[in-house]
Amino acid sequence: MITASEDLNRLIALEQSTDRAQIAARDREAARHGGVAWSGFSPPPVAPRPAAALAAEAREKLARLHSWRASSAGRLLAAVAESQRAAAAAHAAGEAARAALSRGASSGVEGCATAAEEMADRALAACRAARRARRIARGAATGETD
Q1: Which of 19, 23, 108, 132 sits a CA distance of 20 to 30 A from 118?
Q2: 31 Cβ contact partners less than 8 Å away, ≥ 6 residues apart
Q3: How many domains does the chain have?
Q4: What mean pLDDT value characterizes the chain?
Q5: pTM of the predicted model over 0.70
């Protein structure tokens, strides 16, 4: 799980990246107006925002992100994503079991048993997350929260 400070650092970096992109776009547009151009048609200058403004914007976005994550839609999406990750891991474990069997010999059976155990664990995790997603979706449809 991502921590609030990791989220905040990621959002601050995103704000800085946005500023750099805006400045680069402004510079490209200004270059188009170099040479002979009508006065007043060049884009206005863009300055990077101060660090405090970037941090404030990132904190506002983080608050909105946390609010959304706590909403029915946010929890539903998290449960669906968790189920999908677990299902993908179960599939990968199944592929490992097949690969172990295709190698043959006794190591294939041992490897297959380990992979099958992993596959079962991941499939159960996928089912648990899918059931949680179903409960959240049903609760959202009826206005209930869990």
Answers
A1: 132
A2: none
A3: 1
A4: 86
A5: no
DSSP conformation letters of 90-145: HHHHHHHHHHHHHH-HHHHHHHHHHHHHHHHHHHHHHHHHHHHHHHHHHHHHHT--
pLDDT at 33: 73
**What percentage of the chain has pLDDT greater than the value 90?**
52
The predicted model gives 68-89 an average pLDDT of 94
Q: What is each CA distance from 10 to 51, 55, 63, 108, 143, in whole angstroms?
A: 14, 11, 14, 44, 33
Rounded alpha-carbon distances, angstroms, from residue 62 to 19, 105, 113: 18, 54, 44
40 inside domain: no
Nearest to 48 by CA among 20, 26, 29, 28: 20
Q: Which residues contact 21 (CB under 8 A, 6 or more apart)?
A: none
Please tell me the predicted confidence (pLDDT) of residue 59.
93
Give the integer Cα–Cα distance in Å for 133 and 8: 27
For residue 109, tell me if it sits in a domain.
yes
User: What residue numbers bound the domain in which 123 lies?
Assistant: 73-141
Q: Which two tokens stand for residue 77?
A: 């999406």
Q: For residue 77, is it within any domain? A: yes
